[in-house]
Design a protein that fits this description.
By secondary structure, this protein is mainly beta. It has one domain: Ribonuclease Inhibitor (Leucine-rich repeat, LRR (right-handed beta-alpha superhelix)). Helices cover 8% and strands 15% of the residues. The chain has an eleven-stranded parallel β-sheet with strand order 1-2-3-4-5-6-7-8-9-10-11, covered by helices on one side. Strand 9 (185-187), helix 2 and strand 10 (211-213) form a beta-alpha-beta unit. The longest helix is centred in the last third of the chain and has 11 residues, at 226-236. The radius of gyration is 20 Å and the shape is elongated. The relative contact order is 0.08.
């Protein structure tokens, strides 16, 4: 028997496929389901106090049940079977949205989320999400790993970005990063980058709280090369730099 006034619920690593028993727990603020067999979340539709919802590594594909839960601030739904974000269009209070590991191609509704600070996605078509990115002016954390990104000009206006992770894409030009005055963590590994001067030119990337990951790119690590000089410049500022190995780009 569930406690009626329960505010947090975590049912993870289970074979659970039916959550209808929680539909009357209207005081719930946080619900976590990880690695379950859930594919129906209709039981959540009246839980109007929900602020945090995490359903990952499950069989979820339909988000209609949460379309009216406007108190939601944090949704983490990675590694499911979601294709349509439209049910989220009225959730304008969202601050965190994790969607990686789904098959989403349209991201227009993100433009309705002015408070979004933390976004994780793996877009099928890179251009579909990059056209929306400039509207997300409050982003501090952006993770777009494992996609088809080649051009990151769209992020140049995100002045509040502190963390950016764009690994395993097809990026070669990172000049948009040089004027981001709050950057402290940059993950660019597994791309086609041959010049990291933009990171050296960014004075925000300094101190032992800053990390740069540029391994598995096209950098020249031979003695005296400009890339080695740039790496050493960052290290001299106490930045943690991960740069080995590099791939063969010839």
């Amino acid at each position: 028997q569930f406690a009626v006034r329960l505010e947090e619920l975590n049912i993870s690593y289970s074979f659970l496929d039916d959550i209808s028993a929680i539909k009357s727990l209207i005081y719930l603020r946080s619900v976590h389901f990880h690695k379950s067999k859930i594919n129906n979340i209709e039981a959540l539709k009246n839980l109007v106090n929900l602020q945090n919802l995490q359903i990952s590594s499950s069989k979820l594909s339909n988000l209609e049940a949460i379309k009216s839960l406007t108190n939601l601030k944090d949704i983490r739904m990675f590694s499911n079977q979601i294709t349509d974000l439209n049910p989220l269009k009225n959730l304008t209070n969202l601050e965190t949205l994790w969607l990686a590991g789904n098959s989403i191609s349209k991201f227009e509704i993100l433009g309705n989320m002015p408070y979004l600070k933390n976004l994780t996605a793996k877009p099928i078509e890179a251009s579909n999400i990059m056209s929306i990115i400039p509207k997300l002016s409050n982003l501090t954390h952006l993770y777009l790993n494992g996609g088809t990104l080649t051009n990151i000009d769209a992020i140049s206006s995100l002045s509040k970005l502190e963390v950016i992770s764009l690994s395993s894409n097809q990026i070669s030009n990172i000049s948009p990063l040089k004027n981001m005055s709050n950057l402290r963590y940059v993950n660019l590994k597994f791309n086609n980058i041959s010049n990291i001067s933009a990171l050296v030119e960014n004075p925000a990337i300094t101190g032992d709280t800053s990390t740069v990951e540029v391994n598995n790119n096209c950098l020249d690590l031979s003695n005296g090369s400009q890339d080695i000089k740039d790496i050493n410049s960052l290290k001299a500022r106490e930045v943690k730099v991960k740069y080995e190995p590099q791939k063969n780009c010839n």
